Amino acid sequence: MTAEAAAGPRPARRVLVPPVSGPLLRPAPGPLRTLSGAAMRTDWCVTLAGRPDLPLAAVESAIGHALDLVIRQMSGWEPGSVLSRYNAAPPKTS
After folding, report:
1. Distances 93 to 14, 15, 80, 84, 85 between C-alpha atoms, Å
2. How far is CA 3 from the centre of its chain?
């Protein structure tokens, strides 16, 4: 008998869905457009509903700036990030 079998059945995966306290919002009518890219050693994907007049280049630029900010602050592999500098600081440094 394997260790996994001896441990018994695995618990069912659960997803927490918070309660909705108002009417559900529906996407604006219009085409669905998808943007995607790579950041932080993974991929990202955004699907936009409606607003065909919204320039995709501006949206993609805003997403890129937001992800760049996250990397500058919290990257564990970029030596210049705030987190990396904090982790490299000597103890009891303010």
Report:
1. 42, 41, 17, 14, 11
2. 35
Lowest-pLDDT choice from 22-36, 53-67, 80-94: 22-36
Tell me if 71 sits within 8 A of 84, measured CB to CB.
no
C-alpha span between 85 and 94 (Å, rounded): 12
Do residues 35 and 60 touch, judged by C-beta distance below 8 A?
A: yes
pLDDT for the residue numbered 51: 80
pLDDT at residue 69 greater than cutoff 80: yes
CA distance 75 to 41: 10
For residue 90, which amino acid is it? Answer: P
Please list the residues that pair with 38 across neighbouring strands: 43
Q: How many helices (H) and strands (E) does the chain have?
A: 3, 2
